[in-house]
Structure to design on (420 residues):
């Protein structure tokens, strides 16, 4: 495992935007208690900014957990936009639904329990695709969703550096091969412009050129 | 000075996009020879992706050096867009002009020699503002340019982490106070959504909310 970004830098950036928000606090507390992985506020802010810029009608998340990233997307959407949450766990999705109700964001969301890839494939003209399923599924996830993307879609994948194991194997983290394969696939596509931002655990951004 | 991102991670990301491009090579060689600071390819790719997403009509650069960042912007612009280059050095701007001619991008650029802030203030409806002047000038630069920004403008500032001196002073790098002041100003504005990406020396992104 590699420390991707110096922790003092991470603290500095987080300290610049000290948002007091009981909903974020509660979800972060739940993540600590349950061990369910979430993106952090830094990544959340990047998703938020990109969503504001992109003004998508349809965001599809593959692997929403209990809705932390979904909340960052939903807050950034205009009234025309919606985010589709997917997770295997009914408990996670129920928690997300409750949270979105409290936040007054339910009308911007669809809550779906089941196989993320199968559900994702039901949608067309996806403007923003967020990939955060189990890491071994990344190559299959993009392959299923490629035909479902709108023109100029933005693909965002969390954990694109997978704790640094893309450059140095660590028995604690499996599936670095799948992540490497996914990254290489995205960078090799001439119909996408792709980059990775070393924020937290790495965020891959791929913009569809037509 | 703090190593912001692990160098193995930086190499991995750069290695995923091995663009063979004699123009970039020549500019990077010139940067090494002359010691003129440039953004690197990682930051270049982020600027490129954001510009593709934003589709700006007008990009204004405060502090273009010999045009490395300008080249990344210009390639990402559509036919309707242009980038204004500013630098004190006539030699830098002449080199940029020559490079843009070779690249067939001259029609997307304006080449201006002189005081970046004074020149920048001549423009209105700036869609993307790129700040890369001397670091002590950052607070003044944004204050001069705020009224010149278009709705939903994107402000991008390089060196927002200033070699880590925003968290740990280093006598080798002056002006960490000015950078901190600039960052705090941008994050405090309610009319912008701001974040910092720890890419290379830190890239501040601020999206104007109206």
């Amino acid at each position: 495992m590699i420390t991707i970004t110096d922790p003092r830098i991470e603290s500095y950036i987080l300290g610049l935007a000290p948002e007091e928000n009981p909903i974020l606090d509660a979800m972060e507390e739940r993540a600590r208690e349950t061990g369910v992985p979430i993106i952090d506020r830094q990544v959340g802010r990047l998703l938020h900014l990109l969503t504001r810029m992109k003004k998508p009608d349809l965001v599809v998340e593959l692997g929403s957990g209990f809705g932390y990233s979904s909340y960052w997307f939903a807050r950034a959407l205009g009234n025309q936009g919606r985010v589709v949450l997917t997770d295997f766990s009914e408990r996670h999705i129920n928690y997300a639904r409750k949270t979105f109700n409290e936040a007054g964001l339910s009308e911007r969301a669809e809550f779906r329990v089941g196989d993320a890839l199968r559900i994702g494939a039901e949608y067309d003209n996806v403007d923003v695709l967020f990939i955060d399923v189990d890491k071994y599924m990344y190559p299959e996830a993009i392959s299923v969703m490629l035909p479902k993307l709108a023109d100029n879609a933005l693909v965002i994948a969390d954990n694109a550096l997978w704790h640094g194991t893309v450059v140095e194997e660590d028995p604690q983290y499996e599936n670095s091969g799948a992540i490497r394969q996914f990254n290489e696939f995205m960078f090799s596509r001439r119909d996408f412009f792709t980059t990775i931002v070393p924020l937290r655990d790495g965020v891959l951004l791929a913009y569809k050129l037509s």
